[in-house]
Structures are given as C-alpha cells and as structure tokens.
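INTERNAL AUDIT FORM
Audit reference: QA-55
Scope: verify that the stored structure record matches its stored sequence.
Auditor: D.O.
Record contents follow.
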Amino acid sequence: MLEETLEDLKQSIEKAHEALRRELAKIRTGRANPGILDGVRVDYYGTPTPLKQLAGIAVPEARMITLKAFERSQIPIIESAIRSAQLGLNPSNDGELIRIPIPPLTEERRRDLAKTARKEGEDCKIAIRKARHDAKDMIDELEKSGDVGKDDAARALKELEAIVKDGGTRVDEIVANKEEDIMKV
C-alpha cells in the first residue's frame, strides 16, 4: 500500500514536470519554435481545431516559422487566429505559405518572460505540494486504520518528503534553464 502511494506521488510529480515543460515551451525566446503555436485554435467549420491539424509547420531559419495550410481556403482564417492569439506575432501570406517572422526580444521583454517562467515554475511546485498533501493523507489514513505500523508510516513519510524535495529541485533546474535561454541574446 505504501509503495503504491509513493509511486502515485512520483507519477504526479512527473506529470507536473511535463506540464511545466509544455508551458515553458510556449514562452518564446527570440528563436523560432513551433511550440509557441500549440495553443492556437482555428475555427474550422465551427469547431475550434488545433493549428497543427490544419497546416504543416516548419522552421526554415532561426527567426522564421512557415505554415502550409492543407486547404488554401483556410489561410486567411489561420492568419487571423494567429493574430488573435495575442502571441505578439504578425503573420503574412503569399497565397501559398504563411510566414511568421519572430521579432528579436528587448531586454524588458526578456525580463517579463523570465518572470513568467518563474510563475509557471511556482504553479508546478503548487501542484507538487498538492500531490504531497494527498499522499500524506493517504499514509495517515493507512496508519489510522491499522493497515500499516507507525514505523512503516514514519519511514514512508520520510521518503515522501525526499521525493517532494527532489521534485522541487528538478522544477528549479527546469526554470533556471529556461531563464538562461530567455536571457541569452
């Protein structure tokens, strides 16, 4: 029982790390990254559809993303969806391709993005603390019902704290790497 609880905690922490990586991938660093378009939804015949289902996305150079719509009639709709997503991008099309130049970041904007990355890291730590709380409650419940002894429960709580501390350290590393990437000119 205790092993299952600790394993569930590890899985929850790993899911929180994955969510953090996805959120940080959306923060642009001055280089073209197709991940910044992941949250863009296009109204495709009345259904909000992810952009990558309507167009092929490529990065031909460091500061340019190109999209080739699978249906030419969707080009203006895709273009307006990117504009309305408030990503600070200004797409243009030539009838075949949509080109999205990635503007260089100013120092002030870099600091704002670094602050956003730290906020995402803090949200991840909150998710980890919630998973810790749930696991701790489960261990306490097992001890109270008599399914496990006091010593086993104390050992499990000690291991739980070590797992949570390691998860928090990993969050700090992920955020620090992203901040370094953002601040690099």
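Auditor finding: record pair retrieved intact. The first helix runs from residue 2 to 25.
Action required: none
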